[in-house]
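Notes from hallway chat w/ T.B., transcribed later so I don't forget. T.B. wanted the structure written out for a chain they're using in a teaching module, and asked if we could keep both sequence and structure tokens in one place. Agreed to drop them here.
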Amino acid sequence: MDFTFVSGNLGLDLAGTVGRRRGEHIDLLGSPEDLARWAVSAGLLDEPPAADDDDLALAARLREAIYRLATSARTGSAYEEADRLVLNEVAGRPPAGVLLGAGGLERRGDLRSALSSTARAAAELLGGPHAALIRECEAAPCTRLYIDTSHRRTRRWCDMRGCGNRAKAAAFRARGHRQG
């Protein structure tokens, strides 16, 4: 299973590992191994780290806290203290290391450091001016959150190649049925 990184922020991408939040949830992090693969796919680490059920539970707590915080930012609601505490607890740990090695860039650390880097990215988003640009994909049943950095702030879908393309194709088919 491949992971998607279209949200514009690692924290939102972690939150996006649960799909269809208002329907039959799809959890892309079903095992510690999935979480380790996500950390590599996200570009946080070069090699899959050791991961266990405690790491997976922490990632799930962080993911849901980020989702709720981002939803609050999107709707203009106050952040819940419990969610801020989870985010800050994880962000306060040492992040993954980024080094210049003989062969180029090296990303090292364990799973907790990768989660710290993710939480730090989310904290920077949620505490900065781009928090006001968080949107939710309009394509049903997608519930992915993303940062709308389009020129006019009118982006409607998390990803044009996926959700946007499907929505436009469905609208085209619907117009064709009315004309025929």
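Follow-up for T.B.: The CA atoms of residues 36 and 48 lie 5 Å apart. Might be a good example for the class.
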